[in-house]
Task: structure prediction
Amino acid sequence: MKEVKTPLIRLAKRDGIEPRKAWAIRIGSIFVALILGMIPIVLAGENPFVSYGVIINGALGKASYIRQTVKRAIPLLGCALAIAPCFKMRFWNIGAEGQITMGAIFASFFAIHLGPKGVPAFLMFIIMCLAGALGGAIWGFIPGFFKAKYNTNETLFTLMMNYIAIGIVRWLQGGPWEGRPGTQIIPMFTDNARLPNVFGIYCGWIVVLVMVVLVHIYMNFTKHGYEVAVIGDSENTARYAGMNVGWIMMRTMLLSGAICGIVGWMLVSGANGTLNSDVAGGVGFTAITVAWLSQLNSFAMIAIAMMLAIIGKGSATLQTKLDVPASVAEIVSGILLFCMLACEFFINYRIIFRHKKEAEV
Amino acid sequence: MPARIRERKLQNCAIELKNIVKRFGKVVANDGINLQINYGEILCLLGENGSGKTTLMNMLSGIYQPDEGEILKNGEQISIRSPRDAYSYGIGMIHQHYHLVDVFTAAQNIILGLEDEKMDIGAVNEKVKGICKKYGFDVDPKKKIYDMSVSQKQTIEIIKQLYRGAEILILDEPTAVLTPQETDKLFAVLRNMKKDGKAIVLITHKLAEVMDVSDKVAILRKGKYINTVITKETNPQGLTDMMVGRAVTLNIDRPRYANPTDKLVINDLTVIDHDGIPRLDHVTFTAKAGEILGVAGIAGSGQKELLESLTGLQHVAEGSIKFINKDGKDIELVGKTPMQIRQVGVGMGFVPEDRLGMGLVGSMGMTNNMMLRSWRQGRSIFFNRKDPEKLAKDVWEKLEVVTPSTEFPVRRMSGGNIQKVLVGREIASRPPVLLTAYAVRGLDINTSYAIYNLLTREKMNGAAVMYVGEELDVLLELCDRILVLCGGKVSGIVDARKTTKEEIGFMMTTVGGAKGGDK
Result:
């Protein structure tokens, strides 16, 4: 007779989990990540505990450090807010990078042409904000339109749009907007085109916090938000309920692009003071992680964006202070993200080992 | 090989299941099931929706593994860990959804996945013909799948299993997609296989078929094994009582409405699909207020296109749909969007075929699903959630929906409860026209009758009800008139009180039915 085997490990879908348990798993995953993250640090020849201390200290140790960390978090948070409605709709907008860049270009146009003419700062603020939103919205609308009308693949489409936007900045840098010939640099904006500081950080942080609340309301209490959620679950259901799915897609992409554009404006006008081709600098991609880790909850995005900013800022310090290459720090943050995403699996499934009864459900 | 089977024939046990347990999360789908499947016998596995029939058989075909219990074949314990294992033990299952490659021929599909088969298609064709002759199948092995009817595709699935040497055949609700005539043919084949010594398991919830074809009936209820009885020694009422667990009356009350008036007048409705094939071909009929109009037909005869045209979801090539409102005025619906149709005051309750894919949002709770009908109301950019919440609570109580709260995602409810939410919502809007497609598909007997009664109540309230159904017995008992579709054409409209199952069955396959043939 053949021996009968049951598999060593089996997976079973959980039937829902208490929120407390789910958060325990999430926090546990961070600890696991920190322990795993020690391996590359040890391999680089440093004491991992000291290194972690340096990271925390470098990100939060002094008021000026905190300000820099927050500065890193602002675009991450803003951009995560922008892509949340798209992701809720299962429209995979990975073109935030390009939408930021386009918003930055539109805002810069007015900074360069109106700034030196002495237009009052508050007027510049409004004009540049609207211009940024318009630029991003156009860049978001194009893939939305083609998806709605011709069912093109939005992932590839939005990705390709990124390169076009960045290419345009390169051309502007070396051409029409170049400062001193040969520098390939656009000159710094005049003061009236710069964002004022509040508590030592450019006032973009107030803008994104307002947006957190607005996006939360939009997603949870408005008719638009409801439509987006229905489409994300089932396009057919939405159609049967009389929703114009194509239009809602385009509208949501307009909105998403506009928010990205506003982030772009804040980056040129607040963080950098000018435009360069690296304005988005990967924020559009990292923001996907932020949005996903926070499960599209806009308040959770604040925490996640801050966490990623702390790791980013702390690793920069790690490199200068301990001579640990920044790539090691990147490995550590990669491990952290991996663990946090992986833990969602354990929230949804449970593992059953052979010989063990399933009594403890 | 036949000698070996013949030896084991006559009450010889093929498969024995001992104390099988299968859990999905907290749900116990199978709770200590014992079952014996014999060679040369047709066993019906009978049970309401969600009683664990398909789960149990999926463990025999290698899709699931049992959490506890033993499976014995010919007295030896076996472990079936994949469909491939199941093949090697001679177990073949024909699922509700067929797994065939459209652009391949029948023979190519039959040998698909067989590793040590020589690719001599001529020999395969001969072998397939041999199987067909032996059991009475009617199939051309060289025919492509896309040229085949549903019934022929099912035949290919069965031959596929026989070709692989299956001795134990499991068929999951095989008659759901067949006409009465095709069902008879299938049963004839099953009887031939039984004579040849095969063990056959039939999953079904249609009592008439159980009585017709089976030798024994095993009954499951809510994941538990109830009993196995010999078909000759029982009757439909007895089986129902065991299946439901208490005495159930199997009658639909069919009162007549005093004076039905025309509500929807459809003239020459024609729908042409992307490939230029007419899906509806000059369909003309009238739906009356105070009447349930049944729509019968083989799956894919134009039922979907008909309902979608009425709700404005389908592009209509030709013809008109006139809705007659309370004041007796005609309103043309062709060319209007679903929203416009609703705005002119035509409330069409629509219970679509695909509940979660079309009618409900799986990840949302009852309240947000109720909102699908009302979310646009009012000028504010914010939605009103109070009325839907009240409606959800109402449906929850009145239809006895089993759910922890009105916020619990409907996806995680059972099929019957999902259906209650959907039907409850549509009926609550008190539409003058209520369209339903397969409203009781997959529902257990109790819930089905609750829904029949709701539909009848709406009819007596003066609604024009259209009921697209698949069980002819129910259509005959529930409806006032029955419209039979055949290949997108109206094959005939008959009085449900006077017609017979055979007449409708014939009309489903031939336009005009017997009379059409005479002319």
The two ends of chain B are 52 Å apart (CA to CA). The first strand of chain B starts at residue 13 and ends at 24.
